[in-house]
């Protein structure tokens, strides 16, 4: 099969049928680096979680999933982490919705009092819940570049009449995911979805959806506005990398060192826990 694209943690191939195969790797990224040490089963866990969400979002909009069965000419090791999807004409906007303020949104808010042109109440802190979830689109930056915030006017200039539908669908997907995850003790602070047009001009949900790679997952019981919230899945990795034990100096510009087995195991357990809590299924 033909290799089309490699992201930090996923690859995209074209099948002889013209459909695409989206393959999730066991890699994890932290501090803008793809770490050398894989997290066993991460690709399978997040693929299965995403498939579970696609089913629960099907009443909101159609999706690109064709099959979770491994195509005949794909390597057996991809089983459970490769999904056949139909080809879409992807919208050139990263569709992001935020229910909480942190990261680049907080940075913009601190400077301007708004995010992507949306004015927010004064006095919000890192991790504050927003009065309502907001659409905070960005450009699709080239590899190695950073996405740039877009105002709704810029989205309209880019996609025309699709703009309000991108906004409404992105916020609706976020609301559904955030509500269901919160009932299971996980805050989804924000999420990025990919939308594309099918040949009939219908907007279709692509990519992966509501995973810890496409969203910020926070443990609800640790939520406390005013400082950076602990990541549900990446905190063990972040804490070790920034501890003296790793010997890594982030300011050096050098790539992080390999992770100890203990950190790998704890991180794998967090992915399993997120999957099992949200889906109420046992990961096997
Ligand atoms: N999903 C989807 C999709 C589709 N259904 N049709 C056409 N293009 C795409 C598509 C193009 N880039 N990406 C991002 C991406 C995803 C997975 C792995 C990667 F390396 C990169 C998605």
UniProtKB/TrEMBL annotation:
SUPFAM superfamilies, A to Z: SAICAR synthase-like
CDD domains the record matches: SAICAR_synt_Sc
Keywords: ATP-binding, Ligase, Nucleotide-binding, Purine biosynthesis
Protein family per UniProt: Belongs to the SAICAR synthetase family.
NCBIfam families listed in its UniProt record: PRK13961.1, purC
Protein name: Phosphoribosylaminoimidazole-succinocarboxamide synthase
InterPro entries according to UniProt: SAICAR_synt/ADE2_N, SAICAR_synth, SAICAR_synthetase_CS
Pathway(s) this gene product operates in, as recorded in its UniProt entry: Purine metabolism; IMP biosynthesis via de novo pathway; 5-amino-1-(5-phospho-D-ribosyl)imidazole-4-carboxamide from 5-amino-1-(5-phospho-D-ribosyl)imidazole-4-carboxylate: step 1/2
Keyword ATP-binding: yes
Domain of life the protein comes from: Bacteria
UniProt keyword Nucleotidyltransferase, yes or no: no
Catalytic reactions of this protein: 5-amino-1-(5-phospho-D-ribosyl)imidazole-4-carboxylate + L-aspartate + ATP = (2S)-2-[5-amino-1-(5-phospho-beta-D-ribosyl)imidazole-4-carboxamido]succinate + ADP + phosphate + 2 H(+)
Cross-referenced PROSITE patterns: SAICAR_SYNTHETASE_1 (PS01057)
UniProt domain SAICAR synthetase/ADE2 N-terminal: residue ranges: 4-252
Gene that produces this protein: purC
EC number assigned by the record: 6.3.2.6
Provenance organism: Actinomadura vinacea
